[in-house]
Design goal:
Blueprint lengths: L13 H13 L1 E3 H8 L3 H13 L3 E4 L2 E4 L4 E4 L2 E4 L2 H5 L3 H12 L7 E4 L3 H9 L6 E5 L2 H7 L5 E4 L4 E2 L6 E2 L3 H5 L4 E6 L3 E2 L4 E4 L2 H12 L1 E7 L11 E5 L5 E4 L5 H9 L3 E4 L1
Parallel strand pairs: 6-7, 6-11, 7-8, 11-14, 14-16, 16-17
Antiparallel strand pairs: 1-3, 2-3, 4-5, 9-10, 12-13, 13-15
Helix pairs in contact: 2-3, 5-6, 6-7
């Protein structure tokens, strides 16, 4: 099998074909991980990656490589989120299972902060059967899912609406939310670092999410397994400060050790 683009580059090496297939399957991978899989030096893997990048088949970042249709991209050395519509179609089954598990943690009568994201939209749908909920969210899309339910009160902060994802942002958004106290904050993340740091892409969204977490009794982090291999640049918090991590796959041994030493409860959907 050969890949070709307008520059007439071709993949002739079976290792490069397999490398591309692995990256496309996993979304992104580290150079060290690929070198171990192929039992070659990291320098050899870098040469393969450089060739594939010239063919516009994948993109490099420091220490790793990302498929070109991944949900994040590198622009001027900054990591940014790709189209919201693309992420809506990714890991749908996993997100729905996660959503069901999160909904089981929320008792009727709770006050809940909900952040922005495709995963929390699935959670919002799973909460529709709840009674006497008060939901405070900076996502117009989450609000649109819930507001017709007469058993759920929906509140939105002031701010400017983002066209890309329906998020509300601005200098007054976090100030508005700081007036409330909640039983739970439900948030997804852009990535989880190996040391347990929770990361996201947008500083404004992270500022709002931090306000929610600081003003709630418990924090639920909901994310599919891809977030353990993803890359993001804005620090949200550390998993130690979350009450629950709800995901679809058992994390690696090192991350499990971090969880076990914390008060965060791991829930597998």
């Amino acid at each position: 099998m050969q890949f070709e683009n307008k520059q007439t580059f071709k993949i002739n090496a079976p290792r490069q074909e397999r490398l591309l297939a692995l990256v496309n399957e996993n979304g992104n991978m580290s150079i060290n991980e690929l070198a171990t899989i192929f039992n070659v030096s990291e320098q050899t893997i870098r040469r393969d990656i450089i060739k594939l990048e010239k063919m516009e088949l994948l993109s490099r970042y420091h220490g790793g490589v990302i498929r070109n249709n991944q949900f994040i991209e590198i622009q001027q050395n900054q990591i940014v989120n790709k189209d919201f519509e693309i992420r809506e179609l990714s890991y749908v089954d996993e997100k729905e299972k996660i959503a069901k598990a999160v909904a089981e943690l929320i008792p009727d009568g709770s006050t809940v902060f909900i952040t922005i994201g495709t995963t929390v939209e699935k959670i919002a749908k799973a909460l529709c059967h709840k009674n006497s909920l008060r939901v405070i969210t900076d996502s117009i899309r989450v609000a649109n899912i819930l507001y017709k339910n007469t058993n759920i009160e929906v509140m939105l902060p002031s701010g400017t609406l983002r066209a890309s994802n329906g998020g509300i942002e601005g200098p007054n958004t976090a100030i508005s939310l700081a007036e409330f106290r909640a039983d739970f904050t439900i948030s997804s993340v852009g990535a989880i670092d190996a040391d347990g740091t929770l990361l996201d892409f947008n500083l404004s969204e992270v500022t709002v999410a931090k306000t929610m977490m600081n003003n709630s009794k418990k924090t639920i982090i909901a994310c599919d397994h891809s977030k353990f291999d993803a890359v993001a640049s804005v620090c949200l918090d550390h998993i130690n400060n979350a009450s629950y991590l709800v995901t679809d796959t058992v994390p690696n041994k090192e991350f499990l050790e971090i969880i076990n030493k914390s008060s965060c409860q791991l829930i597998l959907a």
